[in-house]
Amino acid sequence: xxxxxxxxSDQQTNYLPAGEKFRCRKAHSPMKKLIVFDLDGTLAESKSxxxxxxxxxLTALLGIVKVAVISGGNWRxxxxxxxxxxxxxEHLTNLSLLPTSGTKxxxxxxxxxxxxxEDFTDDQKEKINSSLKQAIGSSDFKIAETWGEQIEDRGSxxxxxxLGQQAPIEEKKKWDPxxxxxxxxxxxxxxxxxxxxxxxxxxxxxxxxxxxxxxxYGIRKLRDTLGIAIQEMIFIGDALFPGGNDYPAKEAGVVxxxxxxxxxxxxxxxxxxxCLDCVQHPKLxxxxxx
Length: 290
Ligand SMILES: [Mg+2]
Hints:
By secondary structure, this protein is of the alpha/beta class. Helices cover 36% and strands 17% of the residues. Magnesium ion binds at residues 38, 40-42, 237-239.
């Protein structure tokens, strides 16, 4: 298995400066063996499919290193957003998929196999649903129009999508770009259902899971299932700030790279692939640095 080195830890969660590319550097951090991605807003626009360029880059990455995707989305979303546009083949055995914030885990052999799923009881679902409705009802903002259901039961996660699950992406982007509205909903829910974990995700979503079951949980499952140390992973996501649904991955101790959107994630993947080339052809790297 080939490994990757990333920039030093003092740059681990900063945005890339405009026009700047990642460079291969000699660092004292452990070699990286697993690249972990968020899906919505990182590999693809929210609830949209992977574009052709991202599919090509991911396929190239899967050819040389193990990759995992952890998302608040359910398995159906993984099939529609990720797998439908990813070419089939041997490289998929390098891919691990963790829907609903890591409460489910899929691996590929001759097809996709579910390793585990941690579902809510009916009583827990009822309490979460009624608390969500109460929190929305007592918020100081109004939602004028919705597209589809607002509350989705994903078995091991209940997701509130403010404008509905079929809302147009342009409407979603306008609704809560600075997370202000969803932070208020989260504060209300933290009081109403303190026994559950509440995270902000997607562009208009609030995710509720069992306590302790979040992307940090998924990271530890990756460590245990794949036998790869947390120090040997890199996490790439668009919500690594406190309260964001990627933040638990950073809290778990993974070197984390914040990206603004899929375009920036593509540049990070290109850089990781280039770093692998440096590992494979060290003399080329030396010549470029002169
Ligand atoms: Mg995201």
